[in-house]
Amino acid sequence: MLAPVPARRRRPALSCGQWNEAACGFEARGSHKENGMFDRSVRRKAWTMLCLAGLALSGGACSAQHKRPTTKAAATDAGADAFAGDWGFSTRCYKGHYVGITLTRDGDGYTGTWSDGTDIWGSDGSFRGAQKDGKLEVDACTTTEQRGGYARCPAYTPNTAYFVRSGERLVWYRREGEMVDEYLTLDRQPANQVPVTDSEEVCDE
Q: 74-127: per-residue pLDDT in tens?
């Protein structure tokens, strides 16, 4: 008559700091308990593959445990300056549109970089400018060839745009001759983070 199988005790959930040790050290701790059904070398290869897979996934798993910085936290990190910091806009509608701007206070003026693209094309470049009457007036250049667009860096097209604050947001106005166009409204975002699209966004296409 076979002895009853003892109930398996549930192991506590592992933290990110424990994951690598658990994934890669399990074979060393537990292999002596195996009953010899599989060859040791086969087990070692299997655990090695599991370890590598666990390490590849651990980065995403660990990062998911940390909360993303909020808009308020990003604004605090930028200090009291109304324009300096990282700003972003994104939408998955209309073939996507993704914009990132970084503005830095440089003495009495500002310098910065920009990127602007869709799922099909994209361009980037630099800003330079100064604050005047509550607006940040900027010149712009691009690192890519543009027909009828901004000058190629390091040359700048003057008076191409200006930025104004609207509450916690930054509004980008573009100039084309005598015309002024409200282009985009951007939100503060953590440094070097790609703008995240809203998964619940409804597109009128």
A: 443 445 799 999 999 988 887 788 999 999 999 999 999 999 998 888 899 999
80 and 43: one domain?
Answer: no
Q: How many CA atoms lie within 13 A of 59 on its CB side?
A: 4
Contact 43, 35 (CB under 8 A): no
Instruction: Note whether 119 and 31 are same-domain residues.
Output: no
Ranges of H-type helices in the chain:
16-30, 40-65, 71-77
Does pTM surpass 0.70?
no
Instruction: Work out the percent of the chain whose per-residue pLDDT is above 70.
Output: 53
b/e 188-198 (16+ beta carbons within 10 angstroms → b) = bbeeeeebeee
Please give the residue range of the domain that contains residue 34: 16-65
Summarised one tens digit per residue, pLDDT across range 23-64 is 344 344 444 444 444 445 445 444 444 444 443 433 333 333
Sign of the CA dihedral running 75, 80, 82, 83: negative
